[in-house]
Design a protein that fits this description.
Radius of gyration: 44 Å
Oligomer: single chain
CATH topology of one domain: Glutaredoxin
Number of helices: 27
Strand order of the largest sheet: 13-15-14-16-17
Shape: elongated
Distance between the termini: 102 Å
Largest sheet: 5 strands, mixed
Amino acid sequence: MSHSRRLSLEPAIDSSTSRRFRDSLTLQRHDDDVNKPDFRELDLGSPVSTLTPRVSSSSAAATPTSSSGSSGSVSGKPSVTSQMVKSHSGEISRSAMPTTTTRNLKPGHRRSSSTGTPLIFSGSSFYSGASQSSGATSAVSPSPTVLPAGNICPSGRILKTGMATRSSTRAETLWTGTGNYGHGNVVKSGGGSTGKTNHAVANGESLEELKRLGNDMYRRGSFTEALSFYDRAISLSPENASYRSNRAAALTALRRLGEAVKECLEAVRLDPSYSRAHQRLASLYLRLGEAENARRHLCFSGQCPDQADLQRLQTLEKHLRRCWEARKIGDWRTAVKETDAAIANGADSSPQLVACKAEALLRLNQIEESEFCLSCIPRLDHHQSQAKLFGMVAEAYVLCIQAQVDMALGRFENGVIKAERASMLDQTNPELVSVLNNVKMVAKARSRGNELFSSGRYSEASVAYGDGLKYDGSNSVLYCNRAACWYKLGLWEKSVEDCNQALKIHSGYIKALLRRAASYGKLGRWEDAVRDYEFVRRELPGDSEVAESLERAKTALSQESKSLGFNNEVEAVSSLDKFKNSVSLPGVSVFHFKSSSNRQCEEISPYVNTLCLRYPLVHFFMVDVEESLALAKAESIRKVPTFKMYKNGDKVKEMICPSHQFLEDSIKHFLL
């Protein structure tokens, strides 16, 4: 059976056009910045050569005419006539001793030994280019088993021949790409990587064309489109290091740093001496805060490191060293400062540095800030690094800090899970082993305490919570839970103490504030109870139970005030004994030392009366220094107006001629 082929029509190309076409195939390498794609071209090399028949020695003397479809012509040389056979690449050639050419071919343009004078189709016959150029008038009839490659009939078809005699069943396709091949070159399709390439050939996709398009998209800022082109190029040539490096550049621009690192590692695996990939990898590691990895790739053998990157690396190493020193001595404020400096220096995508700052904030009892810090940790997909920080694998360190923050916020189950994961990642680190043990013991104590509390065994529950505090003395949840036990047992002073400890660790702990307010109420300290309820009311404005508790506390305070004789007026004090009794009153007391003959005193006195009405929980007293000289002398009053503030019998502030705003701010400060 004969086979007919439909080929795309190609215009005739003169010799000068052919030369320009060949010159356009010369591949060059372009150097770019680290964050731009590489432009190192891949020398593809033609997997097949243009097929032309050999000619006799008489016709070989003539000069051949270039074929319109070939990528270049070669001068014919005398050769031995032999039987036509099929080559391994799917082309048809004569089995003969290889001939020697006098022309050096460009790299990537391989010619088979069958190369000779091309055939030119004219009308219905094939003519030898050599005979035609020598003025021969008779047609040379080609062998029926010979097909020209790259020579296209005017009709777009190749004449039918005895192709049924071929043993291969794989289809051949016509190359229409724009790379190192000319239009019309016949290549073999098939499986494997060659099959993928030939599939691209059939669809007109050139590897270097894909790379060029990707680079154009990158320059325009269309990083997603650039990534798509690089992906297609890699699917056709997965062993090309420059394509991998370019893909890493696009991923970096899209902030997919973990994937970018993976691509760079693959690039240096394929080409260990590829300096651009090493430089790009060092830059990525600097952003990830992995100084040791960055130094290894920045200063790898045979490469002169970029001075800007080297300076960034040295600065990062300095800040990491200071963080380590601050952490060892518990100087957490310095640790926060140094981590901020490292991040500002360029390590802006480092999970372990963010975790370091979160740890420092946790130790400073800024739990909400620590939790927020951890929520900002960048997510790095496909990045599994063995880089270390403070002697721990970086990923394990991050999980360790997350576990401790979860424990501080009462998320005990989550804390245990993360501590176990951290220990699995770095099983030999003693600090991680210790953290895991403490987390488990605290979670166990809390669970046991909750069970005992639920069954009404409050005393035993308090012991269980206390056992947990032996392993984590800064856990505000355990203090608050134990305060609940003391409240149930009627030990309200102890309840207040544990609530105070919990609030010292976690200042915004709502449950501890409510529990302390209730304990204050049991102790009859309604002023303190109102203060706590008002704080919670501001935090939870829609909570009806808090609003009701606040109203009850205010009512109780009002009744207590009436029983104590408070009339919401500034009370005059003239004797030293009454002054001492007034100072010892619970809560906040303000003493206004004045003189009726002083203009400033007369101006501020009405404002003091206003403050007395505005803050009924504060005791306001007035001392006329002209009428109570002994008292003024005992208190060393040398200038008026002078204000002295006392809280629960202790002097907390003294002000001379204060402004209205400063006086009120001071009262609010000590009242809250």
